[in-house]
């Protein structure tokens, strides 16, 4: 997620989130200026979708790395996660298809 939309190299602020399908998404990286650009470059090199939302990234940047997102941001972040799944052609884990031992 990036605050700046003109160029990835000019990103002022970036926040990376991880969601494993359980619990709330958590902040895995955040940074300003050069670190923000590095976060975005790393995401791009690994095919991780990038969503730009200046207001949301400002809120997420207040969290510490390792923090789960607060309930107040669930809907906004859920939209970002849905976007990421859609762009990558993937879908979230479907736990209803798992056997009792956790296998599918």
TrEMBL record:
Gene Ontology CC: plasma membrane
SUPFAM superfamilies with a match to the protein in the record: EscU C-terminal domain-like
Alphabetically ordered keywords of this record: Bacterial flagellum protein export, Protein transport, Transport
Lineage: superkingdom: Bacteria
Biological process terms in GO annotation: protein secretion
Protein function: Required for formation of the rod structure in the basal body of the flagellar apparatus. Together with FliI and FliH, may constitute the export apparatus of flagellin.
Family: Belongs to the type III secretion exporter family.
Protein name: Flagellar biosynthetic protein FlhB
Taxonomic lineage from the root: Bacteria, Pseudomonadati, Pseudomonadota, Gammaproteobacteria, Natronospirales
